[in-house]
Amino acid sequence: MKKLYIPFLFLFVLIVSACGNNETVNEDNAIDTEKETFTYQSETGPIEVPTNPQRIISLTNGPNALALNANIIGIDEWTNMNPLFQERLEGVEVVSEDNLEKIIELEPDLIIAGSHMNNIDKLNEIAPTVVYTWGKLDYLTQQVEIGKLLNKEMEAKEWVKDFQERAESTGEAIRAKIGEDATVSVIESGDKEFYVFGNNYARGTEILYQAMELKMPDKVKELALESGIYTFSSEMLPELAGDYVILSKNPDGDNSFFETDLWKNISAVKNNHVFEINTKASTYSDPITLEYLLVFFGKSFLNN
């Protein structure tokens, strides 16, 4: 019996040892998987990027990446100034494409940049750099594209579908209340001039005109639809203001004009059809901004 027992004992030890080695191999494979890259098809061609980037510098499209809970360590100054993103950007460094030394110090594993920016080649030497051209993709496709880059495509697509459904539903309710023919203008006040926007220039224009299908005044359509933005003097306000006005207003700017008779005599003002948004919080078309403005528009139109 003892002679038979020893070989079996030896065999058992070998099996246990093999299992232990397999566990080690599996752990090694798991570590290797975490370090894997994949080929992302960017607008400038294929580029190898981390599957799960841990140190992202976002010189553009930062809000899109923030909406997907990306691990951002560096952000552009304009995104950093936006009040909607303050909590999410706590501890994140402000950087630009011209400050290469600071970017090197941050040791990024992925950089997101705009095609118009300087030093793209040098940025690529620091880390894989994916560039986007502003306006080349529509606002929803852009979010899906960032999702692909960050290995979160499904999450991005699910948000797009859900957002479209909610925005369309809210738009139907708004049109039912204000009338199908009621017009809406999106106007922004500058230091010495005003701007009116088409249907794809942030400030909620994508929601109002594309998703909700609200009407744009004919004069605005003529001047701003193709270009996206039209600059005008205050004398043109009565011509460009629709039945409802979304006023993008800088809280730190000179807003004395809004105390003048010209402003007070505009039909939308007299009818209490002006809804103010903070310019600083509305210059992007990312999910965080869109969600904020969708709620604001719903409350403003439907509770007015």
Automatic annotation (TrEMBL):
GO annotation (BP), single: iron coordination entity transport
Subcellular location, record wording: Cell membrane
Pfam family, one: Peripla_BP_2
InterPro entries: ABC_transptr_periplasmic_BD, Bact_iron-sidero_bind
GO CC terms in record: outer membrane-bounded periplasmic space; plasma membrane
First and last residue of the signal peptide: 1-18
Membrane topology: Lipid-anchor
Keywords: Signal, Transport
Highest taxon above the source species: Bacteria
Domain Fe/B12 periplasmic-binding: 55-304
PANTHER family, A to Z: IRON III DICITRATE-BINDING PERIPLASMIC PROTEIN, IRON(3+)-HYDROXAMATE-BINDING PROTEIN FHUD
Family the UniProt entry places it in: Belongs to the bacterial solute-binding protein 8 family.
UniProt protein name: Iron-hydroxamate ABC transporter substrate-binding protein
